[in-house]
UniProtKB/TrEMBL annotation:
Residues 292-327 form the EF-hand domain. It is an enzyme of class 3 (hydrolase). It is found in: Mitochondrion outer membrane. Its EC number is 3.6.5.-. This is Mitochondrial Rho GTPase. The gene is rhot1b. The chain crosses the membrane at residues 578-600. GO terms for molecular function: calcium ion binding; GTP binding; GTPase activity.
Amino acid sequence: MLRSTEESVSFVPNSHSSRLFLPSTAKVGKTSLIMSLVSEEFPDVVPYRAEEITIPADVTPERVPTHIANVICIVYSVNNKKSIEKVMLIQGCLCVSRVPLILVGNKSDLVEHSSMETILPIMNQYSEIETCVECSAKNLKNISELFYYAQKAVLHPTGPLYCPEKKDMKPLCVKALTRIFKVSDLDNDGILNDNELNFFQRTCFNTPLEPQALEDVKNVVRKNLSDGVCDNGLTLKGFLFLHTLFIQRGRHETTWTVLRRFGYDDDLELNQDYLFPPLKVPPGCTTELNHNAYLFLQSVFDKHDKDRDCALSPEELGDLFDVFPYMPWGPDVNNTVCTNDQGWITYQGYLSQWTLTTYLDVQRCLEYLGYLGYSIQQSQTDPLMAVCVTRDKKIDLQKKQTQRSVFRCNVFGDIGSGKSGFLQAFLGSNLMNIREEHRSYYAISTTYVYGQEKYLLLHEVFPDFDYLSDADLACDIVCLVYDVSNPYSFEYCAKVFKQYFMDSKTPCMMIAAKSDLPEIKQMYGCSPLEFCRRHKMPPPQSFTCNTAAGPNRDIYTKLTTMAMYPHVSQADLKSSTFWLRASVGATVFAVLGFAMYRVLLKPR
C-alpha cells in the first residue's frame, strides 16, 4: 500500500505568490528541504510535518515577481530504490493536471552515485516534468537551486512551448511566434533586418544587440539552417529555429519574455487585458483615434500596399489581417468606405473604416490594434493611448465650438425614398453592383469645412416609425430624405421630425431625392418648402444620383458644417456666403492630401 504525505510552501515575491506543492512517500526529506531553505541549516530535530511556510523572494537566485500559480515537486530519496519506483505511481496520478512538475532527489549526501540514469526514462515518458534536481537538505546542496527551478517552472514552463517527443515547438507556440515575427517585420519583406532585430531586442529586453552579437546569432542560424538567413536578415524559419534552440538549451525564459511582451498569457492566447483594456466612455462623449494612432495605421497600410497604388487588393488586405485570428472586415466594408474602380479599399477608405470602428465600437478597435501590435511598435504600455474620448456634447453646445473630428448623421426616410443611394453617392458609388447580403447601412468619408478635414458618418435608419431606438435618434445631425416623384414620401419625414426632433437641439436637413424625375405635389398639409420655413430649417436640398457628372458633394459639406455648428441660426444657413465660406477649399484640400500621400510613397 502506497502511503504518501505532502507539504506546501508559498513564495511571496512583491505582492504576488506562488504555491509549491511537495507530494511523495514518507521519510524522503520533504520537511527537511523546506526548513533547510528557510533557516539555511539542517535542523537537528525535524517535525513530522511542517506547517505551510512563506518564503520571501530574496531567498532564491531569480529575484523576480511571479504571478499566482502552482508547481509540484515530487520528492524521492536517492538512497531508496522503492521511493524511486513509487515516483512513477505518484507521477501518473498528477499528470492529468496542467501544473508543472519537478522531480527532486533528496539525501544525495548518503550516496556517491547519481539517480539520473533511473529518472531519465521517467522524464522522457512524461512531458509535464520540467526538470530533475538532486539535492541534500543536510549539507544544503542545491537547496536554493531547487526552489529557483520551482519558480522557473511557474514563470517559464516548457510544456506549452515544446514537445520532447517531436523535438519541436508546439503548434500554438509556432503560431504565436509567427505573429510576433510579422508584427516585427516593419517593412513586410519577410526578413528581419538589423534595424528590425534591434528594435525587437529593445522592445523585449530593453537593450540593443551589439553588432558582433547580432552577427553571431545569424551565424548560428546559418550553420544549422540553409534558409534561416536571407539578404543578411533573419527569415521566419530562422526566427523559429532560434527559439527552438533556446528552449532545447533550457533558455525557455527567453521565449517566454518575448511572448509575454507581445501580450500572450500562459496558455499562449493573447491576454484579455492586452486586447480589451477597460475604457469608460461617459454619456454624451464619443471616441476617436488620436494622431499617433492614425500615423501607426498609415504605416501599416504603407507596409502592405506593395504595388503602391494607394489601395489594398484582396491579397494585400488578407496579408494585413494575417496577424488576426479571424478576418475582421466583411464584404459590406467595401460598401461602407471609398473604393477604387476595382472595388478595392483605398487609403482614405481604410482610415475611414478604422474611424468608424473606433466611433461605433471602441473596444473592438482596441482589440484590432492589439492584434497589429500597436502598443509594441509605439513603445506604449497602455493601449488606451491610441484613443481619445471627446468632451460631453452639452459642453460643446454651451461653448459653441467643438474639437471633434467625427460627426454622425442619421438618415431617415420611407422605403424607396433614396436613402441607400444617398449613402453610396457619398462614397462616389451607386447601388448597381451591390448584392443585398453585402449591403451596408453605414457610409463614412471625409469632408472639408473651413479647410479642416472632418469625418462624416452617415447611418441609414430602418423606416419603422413606431420602433425607433435611442441609438437611432442619437446623432449630430438629422437627414430627412423624401422622393420628389412619390406624393406620399414626404409625410414620413414630417412625422419623424415632429415626433422626435422638433423640440430637440439637433439640426435637421430635408433632402429632396431623385430630383432628376418630375416633381409631384406631396400629399401633406403643406409643401416641403413651407414645412422647412415653419420649423426654421434650411430649404429642401435637391439631390440625384442620376447625373453624368456624378452627385454634387456640396450637400455633404453642408451636413458636416451644420453638425459642427448646430447653434448657427436659420438666417445664416440660408446665406450663400456662409456655405461658400464653409466649402471653400474642400476640393483643393482633398486633391492636395491625396497628391501629397502619393509623393511620400514614391521614395519608399
